[in-house]
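Bumping with the actual sequence this time:
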Amino acid sequence: TVQMSSLPEAAQKTIKDKAGSNEIEKIEKKTENGQTVYEAVVKKRGKEWSIEVDASGKFLKQYQEKEEKEKGEKY
């Protein structure tokens, strides 16, 4: 888990734009395919959503957290 202030400025901007007025619960820094990716978990209409961006601020994907976890448990 990392602080918003430790992210590159472009990544911060994209996350804030995508989150809008929704609360950002946490941000994680991870590596996928040798690339640094930042995943912000946002509370939106009572559900948790993950927003992924790369270090240059490029939006990668957004998905609902709960669905992802359930899929993992079923298989």
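The tokens above came from a reply further down the thread. The CA atoms of residues 37 and 54 lie 5 Å apart.
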